[in-house]
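Archive transcription. Copying these from loose printouts into the bound notebook so they stop getting lost. Printout 1 of 2:
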Amino acid sequence: MVEQPVATKIAFIGLGRMGLPMAVNLVSAGYQVTGYDRAKEACDAFAAKGGAAADSARAAASGADVVITMLPTSAIVASCLIGEENALADAAPGALVIDMSSSVPADTLKLAEELKARGLALVDAPVSGGVGKAIDGTLAIMVGGEAGDAARAEPVLKAMGDRIFLAGKLGAGHVIKVLNNYVSAAGALAAVEALIVGREFGLDEGVITDILNASTGRNNTTENKVKKFILSGAFNSGFDLALMSKDIGIAAGLAGDLGLDMKLLSRTSQEWNAATDELPAGADHTEIYRYVDGGSRLG
């Protein structure tokens, strides 16, 4: 059961495919939530679900005790909060910022210093589980930050997820998020290559999937994506290929910064970057199958 709301006013910036249902769950939990998104239709959808919609990020965060961001990149997060949009200018004194985006860990640390100078606190709390779990309020949430700040965030996070992990110090949530997506992306590549090899031998791809899922080769892609999004031809999981590629790139960059030569990570990043360049803008990440299939012929 979600704890009784403590913070009476929350700003939620970024009402996309993930952010909108997350913000709606906060409203359902009893929080006063003002949302903002550059897309007016997203704001309208939030208002229709019982939230308050603002006409700017700054207006949404005015007087807010908690400011949540769910945005595509850490650069956009910084621009929104302390840059061009200056969303935090009128936030409540001592407000807590929760960045639930997939951000670059080094950028998170830099942002925290900027916020500290303003008397504000930051935790990073990216999520995993996709749109379905965002709707259900059953996301896995990985939290990085000071223990006291994480404790302040926990009641809010419990309205959006049922598994809250304190990953470690500030930035830890963003680190484990991109590492998780790397592992997921590497598994996806392996799964679609297996499907294509088996198909070319004459096997049925549905049967391949069933056998993998009853065996040690099963993974998130084989269990949750192959039949629903790939073999069906739907390719509409709700998570863009370009965002997956971005996260793997962050993981690869982190490895490099730590002086590590992670060969599979580097190759996985290269493949997803190439797929992003080759496939149309906005392609779903399950369309990695199309990329691999299109380039699988020797000679």
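Printout 2 of 2:
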Amino acid sequence: MSGTTLVQNRPNTCAPSRAARELGLRRGEFDLAVHLGRIRTVPDEGGGGGRRVPRTEIDRLRGRSESLSESVRVVGTTEAAALMGIPSGRFTRVAKLGLVTPVRWYPNRYRAVVWLYLAEELRRFAADETNTWLLTGRTPAELSDRLRAGADQRARNWRGRHCGFLLRQADGPWERAGVVAGFLDPGEIDEVLTDPHERARVTALRPAPPAHGAPGSAAARLAEELMTAADPDEIDWFRHDLAREVAQARAHRPVPRTTAPSQLAAPGRAALARGLRGWLLRRNPKPAAH
């Protein structure tokens, strides 16, 4: 028997849960770091449809868990206001005006939306001297008028940020189209995509909203609502972007025509729940937001 020693090669990638442990991060911190582009991931070549983390990326970040954790620290309204040195009410007004953007949200036990913000971004905003007039003294009349008219950009800004994250993770042109469609009501998608084969392809690739509660629960319905573009100009933007992404995907690789339109799969991502969204919201008061 020879004296040769066999050395098992280390895998080139690892699962997100393993990467989070090796980097000393909680899973929520790890996921947010990926969301923000601080940790690079690659498609799972094993066919699982998920993402994996290259070993080279873990080696690059090893030993930086403390700074990485601090860079993804999130705060709610009260802590955000304290961090910026302003009253909570003033911070809420700043957030409603769209001057800071939520990075996450969760529903509390009263079905109110609790928005979370990156502490790092808030510190930068408060330190920027050009923003001093927004944080001290009386709120300018023009901004006060917008607030009295019901302005609240928090959900819209979160959608834009979340869309950008999903687009960065998309593996191809049709996947990008699916991402954009994920922020539109099915009726809007039907109007933009008149070809049933393309519509079925895009619908199947729509991302699910961030998981909150069991399917069909009040929390899950709230996630559907927050994932869907609401303002007319926002809807128009997503419709235009969907048409553009589909045109690019079509030029790259047209959808096969092997299935009769009448046999195409029904829309995915709990489309029935989406269709019932208006009925459910009429039965349940619209949740408050904090």
